[in-house]
Specification:
The chain is of the alpha+beta class. It is built from six helices and four strands, in the order H-H-E-E-H-H-H-E-E-H. It is globular and about 70 Å long. The structure holds zinc ion. Zinc ion binds next to helix 6.
């Protein structure tokens, strides 16, 4: 992402991007936001939702690394200021998750996921809401052009990336031109 877009995110969401351009020995955010400008809106929306979900709780979400990997957005983060004893709902939810995870052992996968969905519906805590907002952006990135933000799909062979048709064609032409130049210069 170019610096102009990065700074817009950092200025609007200073807490989430607190470690932006920190020491690369301490945080991966030292590398900046390592994806194309096309995912700017996805990130913006996710951060707005995170802010809304955590509003008034005192809990903050801090980005650890934001990058592209295997054609999708990866947004790693951690929470801070989480209350010492988890709120009752959070605790109950975790217990329920534990019970449902045991069901896999006896082959009750579908029942497990059904229960998991129900529990999310009833118990989803603010922290989970914030986490879901990030997950949604990651999911959405697989159908959003990383260059321009228009609807896109996965392209490429060895190196895969998500782009719309016109950005894909542009990148192909660029690649061909490069090969042609190389061929002219070195004959291979
Ligand atoms: Zn595009």
């Amino acid at each position: 992402m170019d610096e102009q877009h990065e700074l817009m995110l950092v200025k609007r969401f200073p807490t989430i991007f607190r470690d932006y351009k920190g020491s690369i020995y301490e945080t991966c955010m030292g590398w900046g936001i390592c994806c194309g400008n096309g995912w700017f809106q996805l990130l913006w929306k996710a951060c707005e939702e995170v802010e809304k979900a955590l509003d008034g709780t005192g809990i903050i979400l801090v980005a650890d690394q934001v990058k592209e990997k295997f054609a999708g957005l990866r947004f790693y983060y951690h929470f801070e200021n989480v209350p010492e004893t988890p709120p009752l709902l959070y605790w109950l939810g975790k217990r329920l998750d534990w019970v449902t995870s045991k069901m896999c052992r006896v082959g009750q996968y579908r029942l497990r996921w059904w229960l998991h969905r129900q529990r999310r519906r009833v118990f989803e805590t603010r922290m989970e809401q914030a986490g879901s907002a990030v997950s949604r952006a990651e999911e959405k990135s697989y159908e959003t052009c990383e260059d321009c933000g228009r609807p896109g799909k996965r392209h490429g062979g060895f190196y895969i990336f998500t782009s719309c048709e016109s950005c894909f064609i542009k990148s192909e032409i660029y690649r061909l031109r490069e090969s042609l130049e190389r061929w002219k210069k070195h004959g291979c």
